[in-house]
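Shipment paperwork, digital attachment
Item: protein structure file
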Amino acid sequence: MSREKFSVKQLLAIALAVALSATAANGAPSSSLGSSLWGLVLRALPNLVLSVSAASPTSAPTPANAPSVFAPDKGKFRITISGQPVGSEEFEIASSGDTWLERSSMTAHAPGSSDIKSSGQLRLTADGSPVRYDWSAEALKKATGSVDFENGTAKCSADLGKASPLRKDFKFTSPVIAVLDNNLYYQFGILARLYDWKTGGKQTFPVLIPQDMVPGSISVESLGQQQAGNGRYETLRVSSPDLEIMLYLDGNHRMMRLEVPSSNVVIERE
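Attachment content:
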């Protein structure tokens, strides 16, 4: 399988404008087959290993009658780069029996590139622990995959049109794992729900990028209220050693806006 090497800064510069057909570093498949805007968050991290620890949140079991960290939400994001619209994402999260189901579907296009399509369906427990994730992605060609989360192990499978699916398992020390897949932005709204607002401060979360089969960790820190666009919002800074993302939330902690300052990417709720 061929490889193409891109630095984080290079990928951020082209954002959604260039379609790739390559494998990620360390043999992980770039199965989105499109420039991975959010895969950049973690791809360059050093802890791409089979066992990932988490400083927060705690792995203690959640009482059965504890309230959910989630609330029903539905809407659409507009995606822009340097002020120019390049795509949109429709999203919804709702209770489904004793779990919650989050669905996202993104379509983007930039001049000189193929259309990029990504979709994901994430099932979670009330405390935010993922149960199963199914995804599909299409640019130059189509790929599909799934992840089953069982007792702290993420069992990943990806079908890239080869003779047999790619499979890889990752072990985590916490059941609460942030799923941040390529080019699906509402999943950062899920991350904002996992953040412990009462505790505050900087919190570290274990993360999985299913399309790339890449684990890692990411830090989230509350910055209080800040101005962004035409509104004033509760603000979270999401960061890795190579990238900073700003999340802007309303009073109910719904994600209203997301910015990647280094690449002029803005995702805003319509």
